[in-house]
């Protein structure tokens, strides 16, 4: 997949400003093509990099993948695909609202495109605005359609940022020539004057910023679900297994009183966990969180970092979790499981203690 920003030049028509792509192994064999400057273009709007600028390259350490942004092409095929996608995104393939995302394909050159068109304010342009688009293209439609919900929101954020910067520049220029007539005279004298994206946005480093943003899109698109989630899934699976095992163990030991215990937690009743064993405490918390209402999940546990006795009914976990007993501490001694259910239903507090 490649991502590019395009604009409609008032002198040269639709033009690709630059594109970002993933660096591949074949790039070492095409270095001569990459080092060849593009055809000389005097228009700074179409070629804001300039003929001597090699573009930007960055490397993502975690995935060890690199991206490159430039206005040079690795082959005539890539050049044709990008230019065709650019032309269609700024002419026939436009959303009804003029600004918005759209998907289209070109079977002739085997490309599929997500295009998001937008305007940027510019005091020297016809109508005081210029026509741009951000496009993402790939050889398989399934790739883009699967990434629609990821790419489109990211595109919108990039465009929103560009429009805010351009609006600030436009406002400053308007304040310098506040009268409509004077602004119109200035506009007539300079109508269609080529302005680079740096000038329109007022940010000399806007191309570098776009490179970083486009690189993020490229890396998101080229990360497989396994690469993104493997570590998370592994740790989450282990955690779930431990939590479920702990919950089952509590249920088995409490027996018929577990129903009252669960009802107490489901109603939002608070539970105190006191333990000198951090691992056991965390497992118990995770186990009990399966029973906790979402809105109460942050407040239902009163965690204690050291072992403390309690006069409240508690769940006594001993022998490293192999023994679970419900007890009720009072002046007459110890009462067992038959009392814990009644206490919880009455709104009593529950403590989990690992001695």
Keywords:
355 residues, alpha+beta, seven-stranded antiparallel sheet, six-stranded mixed sheet, 11 helices, elongated
Polypeptide structure, described:
The chain is α+β, with helices and mostly antiparallel strands and 355 residues long. It has helices spanning 31-35, 76-89, 141-146, 148-176, 180-190, 197-201, 206-222, 225-254, 258-266, 278-289, 337-345; strands at residues 2-9, 13-22, 56-60, 65-70, 100-106, 111-121, 129-138, 271-275, 301-304, 314-318, 323-330, 333-335, 350-354. β8, α10 (278-289) and β9 form a beta-alpha-beta unit. α9 packs parallel to α11. It is elongated and about 80 Å long. Residues 29-33, 224-236, 294-313, 317-347 and 349-355 have low confidence and may be disordered. One of its GO terms (cellular component) is cytosol.
Q: How would you briefly describe this protein structure?
A:
With about 350 residues, this protein is α+β, with helices and mostly antiparallel strands. The chain is built from eleven helices and 13 strands.
